[in-house]
Amino acid sequence: MTEVAYTLRKNHAFYWLMGGNLVSFAGAQVYLIALPLVVLALTGSTIAMGTVAALGHATVWLQPLLGPVVDRYSRKTLLLLCDFVRAFVLLVLSGLYLVDELHIIYLFIAALIIGTCTQLYNTAQFAVIPSIVKKDDLQLANTIESSMFHTLFWSGQHLADF
């Protein structure tokens, strides 16, 4: 085993981050498929379905504005806050659905909030890795993170089909 792999394996902060990312990435991928399908079931409109999906993805344009936010605040706090906000929004949507008060406008707003939190989360988690691993471990750490992200991107969408 190489020295880099050994030292990274001993880095508990990195593996806590990767464990949190595993759950967060998987949930985000299921959400990206599920929300447009909920809109389709609620409205029967493919235009509304496409609109809510586009709103969630349009937040990628916020990325250049989010870098300074991530640099200014605690990245750990931002990661936790973003996951909390996304979970809370989904919980509210679930509650509205249960009481039969879920309207399309709520789904549009939720897509914007969750999309923004996802962009902020992604920016913060990419920025936090260099601060928790040694410089020699950075390439392997980024490889692990990227592999996990892309694997969950692919598998999460297939899980959402069930």
UniProtKB/TrEMBL annotation:
Keyword Kinase: no
Pfam families: MFS_1
Domain of life: Bacteria
TM stretches of this protein: 12-34, 40-66, 78-98, 104-124
Transmembrane helix in keyword set: yes
Chain coiled-coil ranges: none
Primary site of residence: membrane
Keywords noted in UniProt: Cell membrane, Membrane, Transmembrane, Transmembrane helix
InterPro entries (alphabetical): MFS, MFS_trans_sf
PANTHER family, A to Z: INTEGRAL MEMBRANE EFFLUX PROTEIN-RELATED, MAJOR FACILITATOR SUPERFAMILY ASSOCIATED DOMAIN-CONTAINING PROTEIN
Protein name: MFS transporter
Originating organism: Alkalicoccobacillus plakortidis
